[in-house]
Design goal:
With 86 residues, this protein is of the alpha+beta class. 35% of the residues lie in helices and 24% in strands. Strand 1 and strand 2 form a beta hairpin.
Length: 86
């Protein structure tokens, strides 16, 4: 996980109960994981609970985090899994 000391926003990967990986962004990692697990997160993760955030990258602004989220969503599962091994 890469987190800048002054990070306010994060792009992340969450592992779902079916083994899939969901990419998102947030300004509160712990709160976002809780929201996913309470069924208040993304529609994709609701039937795939529990969810665990397994990777994050920190950014200074929201637009950078959103750009990285979009890039993460375009990765194949193999490429996402490779990020987890770094």
């Amino acid at each position: 996980m890469y987190n800048h000391p002054m990070s306010k926003y994060f792009a992340y990967l969450a592992r779902c109960s079916d083994g899939s990986l969901y990419a998102g962004y947030t300004n509160d990692i712990a709160g976002r994981e809780l929201a996913h697990n309470e069924g208040k997160g993304a529609r994709y993760t609701r039937p795939r609970r529990p969810v665990k955030i397994v990777y994050s990258e920190g950014f200074l602004n929201r637009s950078e985090a959103m750009r990285r989220e979009a890039a993460l969503k375009k990765l194949t599962k193999v490429e996402k899994e490779a990020l987890l091994c770094l």
